[in-house]
């Protein structure tokens, strides 16, 4: 019997290897789920819907968007790291959100770690902007800052959640201008934008993509080095005496232990998709700037954004 087992074992191993190879060759064999960590209607959702649309004909199976909103994205990203690592579940990730939340989470509280989200690729760049209603009494950044200084905490600012990119943007503005605002967090841009237009909040410190899809809003200052080509009429902070650059990077990550072959396949196919001029034009039409990077470079962006976030959080005493 021992001799027989020695004979059978190599054939079993060969059979398993052939099965694994066939499985990799057949990938993907079913639709791929793309998790969105915010409500429908915001910049993340728009970005993912474009991937869903333009993946047809590039990826052999459909991309299916699903929503897991809550806590500024933390609910979705915590769900993602627990997803079955079979190659069929990926998730949209936003920077700096994914570095801020683990840094500020109370010790012992469950949740994802930034390092558990494997960078697959970055998709778009989305700078931050201060928005008010068209009928707002504040016509310039100078007027808004002057009122905020004279009335600490009186102005209500909409954001897409505590300890998100919007919140970091708000903290940087307060630090630079010596002002104090009252933050009103919402579960996504699809909720924050209507809150501004209805008068529920006085201003919205958020993504340019949301601003460009709104009617009835005015941009007071955009946090780019130079004027942004998608809204060239909005002056930069630098033009108005403040050195501030702030933006979101929206990409895709995979859960821990995601199959290497699936990771490689999706990275290559998404690079092909993102090079499509029609896709790029649709991205710009949605108020976003196409900014594809592969997983390695996206990982470097994540490291850089974490360093930046740590500096701001130390300034505010959130971390030591």
UniProtKB/TrEMBL annotation:
Q: Which InterPro entries match?
A: BUG (IPR005064), Bug_dom1 (IPR042100)
Signal peptide span: 1-24
Q: State the UniProt keywords alphabetically.
A: Signal
Q: Signal among the record's keywords?
A: yes
Domain of life per record:
Bacteria
Pfam short name (any one): TctC
The family annotation for this protein states: Belongs to the UPF0065 (bug) family.
Q: What's the protein called, per UniProt?
A: Tripartite tricarboxylate transporter substrate binding protein
High-level lineage:
Bacteria, Pseudomonadati, Thermodesulfobacteriota, Desulfovibrionia, Desulfovibrionales
């Amino acid at each position: 019997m021992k001799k027989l087992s020695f004979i059978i074992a190599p054939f079993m191993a060969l059979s398993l290897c052939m099965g694994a190879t066939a499985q990799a060759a057949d990938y993907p064999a079913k639709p791929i789920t793309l998790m969105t960590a915010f409500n429908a209607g915001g910049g993340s959702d728009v970005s993912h819907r474009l991937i869903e649309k333009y993946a047809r004909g590039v990826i052999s199976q459909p991309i299916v968007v699903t929503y897991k909103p809550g806590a500024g994205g933390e609910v979705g990203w915590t769900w993602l790291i627990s997803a079955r690592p079979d190659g069929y579940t990926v998730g949209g990730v936003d920077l700096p959100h994914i570095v801020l939340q683990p840094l500020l989470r109370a010790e012992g509280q469950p949740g994802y770690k930034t390092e558990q989200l494997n960078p697959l690729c970055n998709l778009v760049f989305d700078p931050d902007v201060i928005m008010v209603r068209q009928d707002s009494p504040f016509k310039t950044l100078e007027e808004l800052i002057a009122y905020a200084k004279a009335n600490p905490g009186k102005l209500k600012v909409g954001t897409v959640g505590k300890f998100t990119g919007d919140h970091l943007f708000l903290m940087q503005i307060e630090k630079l201008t010596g002002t104090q605002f009252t933050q009103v967090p919402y579960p996504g841009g699809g909720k924050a934008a209507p809150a501004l237009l209805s008068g529920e909040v006085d201003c919205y410190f958020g993504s340019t993509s949301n601003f460009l899809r709104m009617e009835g809003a005015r941009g007071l200052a955009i946090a780019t080095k130079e004027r942004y080509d998608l809204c060239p009429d909005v002056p930069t902070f630098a033009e108005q005496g403040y050195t501030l650059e702030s933006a979101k990077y929206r990409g895709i990550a995979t859960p821990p232990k995601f199959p290497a072959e699936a990771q490689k396949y999706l990275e290559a196919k998404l690079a092909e998709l993102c090079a499509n001029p029609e896709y790029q034009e649709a991205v710009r039409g949605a108020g976003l700037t196409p900014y594809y990077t592969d997983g390695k470079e996206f990982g470097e962006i994540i490291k850089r954004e974490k360093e930046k976030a740590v500096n701001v959080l130390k300034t505010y005493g959130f971390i030591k």
